[in-house]
Write a structure and sequence with these properties.
Strand content: 15-25%
Strand order of the largest sheet: 3-2-1-4-10-6-11-9
Shape: globular
Distance between the termini: 61 Å
Largest sheet: 8 strands, mixed
Structural class: alpha/beta
CATH architecture of the largest domain: Alpha-Beta Complex
Number of helices: 16
Helix content: 40-55%
Length: 400
Amino acid sequence: MLAHSPLLSICVPTYNRRPMLERNVRFHLEVFRKLGIPFEMVIVDDRSTDGTHEFLESLAGVPEISHFRRVKNSGFLSNYGFAMQRARGKYALFLGDDDLLIPEKVMEYLRLLEQDPALGMIQAPWMLVDERNGGRDMQPFYHIPGPQRFRQGEFQQMLEFILQYHVFPEFLIIRRDVLEKTISSLGPFIFWAFLYTTRALGKADILFLPAPFARVTGIAADENVQQGKKETMFQWDTYLGGIEYLASHAKISSTLGNSERLSFHERFIQFMLIRKSVALRLHIAFRYWPEAYIMYHRMAAYHPQPAPKETFEQICTLAAIVTALTEASGYSGGEVIVDPLVNDEALHLIPDHLKTVVVRQPSAGHQGPRAWLVMHPEFAGHAAAGDGIFELRHYMAQFS
């Protein structure tokens, strides 16, 4: 442990990604030692099972490293808050275990914070990286035309800014005394970045800058869904909660006239339509067909045709197959005997974990009742008493 409080705490929650964490630690120890500033890395292991704990134990003699291991796996957001609350530095930032800081920008932004006691947080977009192309920089996640400062309590101005430029206030450097009054366990129905940033603006000024200070995986080298994509796909509804939370602090419902208030509400809808469209594309790309079906219909409440007709028809068909296979596999405890009328082209587009349950002929060693996914009624004639018959035409009728 460092003898004195560091200037910067780099807070890294991690879970079962030891190779990425090792790269993260090596890189930041090397570059920040060369820069000569007092810093620490606060690493919180969310009960990994892949050797992460052993790697962190091997760092016990490294003075810049503080590491913790959770009693039980608590999930990303809990781990995020736990890591940030253990920062001892004057300033702290969050970093994913597969992300890397841009050291010269971090130093530039720390100098700005040091020179300005009223400034409690700096926000910036992050540079997306293509890991399949050797870590090539792609583009920042969002773009703003230049520096934008919000004085303490300027909630309406920050709301207008976020809606105009579609800003996601996720990558931040925060003064610790502001952090202590800002970051805690997450409440329901709200995206964490909007909650923490709104709280911080009630305590100090916030400066948004256009240049990233971190590089973040945009396209992964493997098939795993990154944390940011998971949030986009499954937590998109909380974005509206975040905007509403900020709007409540801006008091738009009580301080603005009807037309101004309605204008803000229309902008909320447009903001969310963009997020839903991104979520829909990701659900299709990762073959989450039932989720894509629901997303399409959520968007259709505001947009007459969220996707081309052919795409929607594909979503409906595959959502039905996925749902039927999931229920059939749950009945049999494993394999599902699939009617040959369900073609291989369609089965190629289902998630990998369901491909493993598909069989065309009953397996000799299967114990217990079998499950049959049936298109033509005659196919069910091969079933034995106690087997489960799942008629795909019924599922197709549900997803029409």
